[in-house]
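Weekly puzzle thread! Below is a chain. First person to post its structure in token form gets bragging rights.
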Amino acid sequence: MTGVIRKPLRRPLPSPSLLRTWLLDRSPAGLGAGLLGGALAAGLGLGALAVLVTMLWISSPYPDSGPGSALRVAASLWVLAHGAELVRTETLSGVPAPMGVTPLLLLALPVWLVHRAARDAVDGGGGGGGGAGLTGSVPLVSARTAWAGVVAGYLAVGVCAVVYAAGGVLRPSWVWTAVCLPASVAGAAGVGVWAGYGRPWAPVERVLREVVGVRWLFRGDQDGAAGAGGGRVALRAAGLGAAVLVGGGAVLVVVSSLWHLGAARGAFVQLTEGWSGRFAVLLLCVALVPNAAVWGAGYALGPGFVLGAGHVVGPLGSAPAPLLPPFPLLAAVPSPGAGSWVNWVAGVVPGVAAGLVGWVVGRAARGEVGDGGAERWGFRRTVGVVVWSGVVCGAGLALLAGLAGGPLGVGTLARFGPVWWQVGGAVVLWVVGVGVPVGVLVRGVRRGAEAVVEEVGESVADDDLYDFVEEEGGVGL
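Winning reply:
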């Protein structure tokens, strides 16, 4: 018998895509791509604001400072766009005055840049941006490496910008900058990395499951499970409610601006002279339009907003505001005095938002009509999902209200805009008061409709059986 030459067993070679993923994740290239992307995102944001401010400075007929001061103002505005407060050192009283109202449209620029940089960083700088990496299936860089690289690169440029802006008349507040700048960058980068991985639900579920008392929300939320669990439904309903509130607030602002169109036009003409100054005012108004929408949402919810300490403007009544500068958006503020039915109509906005939250949860509570495999929710779980939708929606509106308002000085103008905790609490109360009954009602109606569908189906089946028996000539007993 001839001998058999045995060849040593060899491990199968890894595929090129897996090998590249392993090497890129464990080499400086993955971290370096994130660092470069974060630094580039910060540089693009700074550059865009620097170009805009420099253009306005050049076109100004009365520039009172040099280009260095204009660039420091641009750097300060970039810091303000991350939610931090600024401090104006040159005032008539000599007391530094804070400025904490963040234009929400300005906030969208750095958030979008960081999100895009983090999403592309999971490809190791490949720029695929599709959430599948260069391999077409698995991102090349781990989430932790991509996130850390983008955040570190962005903050490295941010620290230089803050130090440079600190030498100007309008300088960042160190405390607010140390909190808001890293928090906003870390949050936007985290969402970007999550998007780069295809928006998986499992990591979100693991984080939210740790919240005490809400683990029961996530039954059926596993990827691939039939039907949507309470966690996804709560987030979807909260997002819809927040969108309706902000959109309704924007509608209220537009209606009030048209009502006070003459005053708004007069304020626009009175505030400045020359096309460059009016163009700057127009840009400021556009940047503050989302803020006005959040103010309108706070007004519709009931708490209203504050125009100086002790001067509340709400649907039930408006206190006389202090002497305010002429500004087109401020011309839309309702007149002081007791509220009338015209002001009370604004309550339709939160009512519709809360009703939609309950409607979304109520539909999900029974699944699709006639779908016997869908998960059924009990009464308590339906109510709980509606309540948690209100909590999430209230937290989102509270965050927007905190960013949309803030101090514009000392003394009377130390409080300006909606109060964040009042807005968030009002959202929860509206959702509990309106959304819970709507959710329970929709659940009951769909339950009744499903029972009717099942009864009709059984009746049709019986009729078919009867016709079959007649055609066959009967069945002998």
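Puzzle host: Confirmed. Bonus trivia for everyone else. Residues 420-471 form the longest helix (52 residues).
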